[in-house]
Amino acid sequence: MATTTLATPARPGTTTATPVDRTARLPLWAALAVAGAGGFALDLATPAIGWWPLALVAVTMSLISLIGRSILTAFLVGTVFGAVFFCTHLAWVGQFLGPLPWVALASLQAVLFGAGAIPITLAYRWTGRYRPRGTVQLVAVPLLIGGLWATREVVMGAWPYSGFPWVRIGMTQVESPLAQATSWTGVTGLSLLVVALYAGILQWARAGGLRFLRGIIPAAILTFLLVVTPQFPTTDAGTLRVGWVQGNGPAGYFDPKAPGDMLAAQTAASRSLLGQQMDLLVWPEGSVDSDPLRTPTVATQLDRVVAAAGAPLLMNAATTRGEDVFNTSLLWTADADARQWHDKVNPVPFGEYVPDRWLYERIVPDLVGLIQREYTPGSNLPVVTVNDVDVGLAICFDVIYDQVIWDSARAGAELYVFQTNNADFRGTDENLQQLAFARMRAIETGRAVVNVSTVGTSQVIAPEGVTTDSVGVDTAAAQISTIPLRTGLTAAVVIGPWLTGLIPVAAVVALTGLGIHHRVRPASPRAHADLRRSTRV
To answer: Can you give the pTM of this predicted structure?
Structure first.
């Protein structure tokens, strides 16, 4: 049962600051309720609703629910937050293979989220001895909490099976005034700063709130810096006229179709552009349903499209080299020797391949049997060159992986083309969630993005993250857009890889140091007893 611990009375003529960990904590039932409500609020902060201020509410509720908890209950409370959030946010996963994959993925993410809640609880516990109105509580603790939250995002984005970096606090801010800061810090850095801001506001409230106005200064300074920070400058390098086609063909895994139907749909939708001046024609992921490198009739059809367009065609197909199958974007040109390709770096586990198939076939043989394809991860650079212009690539979910985006920019990309197939998630929020990533990538790199889907939505996104052209869902359409080119690397691209490694290391080292200090220099007997009572289940 929860207890409320009162501050130790001060002796006459002295003042005593109450350690913040000795304030009342939520009863477990209330913490679970607050965590669940916070998980739901975070879902509302992401597309399709996308009310980004609710990220403040969600993060704050998560932190409140973790203060004063034991390790076991911190895990439980964090898991409840994660379960509510991931079950609502990832409901679209069940559209493809039914409820089992949806529940499995949401459950795994929830457990990992719950495990990541434990260090946050320990950070609050081990800093509880410090003065509530001091620099440690108002500056250092929020930064540590932000670092631990960002560390959890990094780990969940890399493990298991290459991770699933779909949900990050930084990504919820694409519509907010804070978004431009990601061009300086990257998404991981923005997550740290945004969570630190929210944690700082919470620390101020715990230290007295309106009765302690000076305590809001650190959070106010951070807010001001995030809001006034402009997008990192890049250099104008001209324009490129890009035709892009959403064919609305039978692109779903289980859509009824005959061989060649996707190619026919894309070709038909492209006819309105043929004869117009363009430098590049772009089709989405899965736009060609046979390997053109091994199927002469398909190659001939693509040659005709390229000749009619008067421009190279960037298309996508499954290709085979030796015993390996790849999800490949091909720059198809009239000259066979000039063709270029890029293979998807991170095939989707249980969608494009089955990791440890031998194991999962014993657990869910019918479900695993539906997934016949086994894509191999690509290792070539995500860049093709068109008329001396380097075009950065990301195939479908590769857009959520920082390294793919950074590799393109460092290889000289002056714009991005993101090819995707959302047909298996028709009628869900998936496409809009993925669009938020595309927009944030434009801001992060200072590059325009052409985001082309098989069935919608498709967009052209300016380097500032603003959508300039778009096509709705379930529509066959084609447009030609003049795309601005940019050169120069943003700070996010330069320091992003370093921050991704440095933030977890710094957070873990800081928390470890706090833990050692907590053991070596224990609090006073009364404070120690109060702290034990405040963390009792």
So the answer is: 0.91
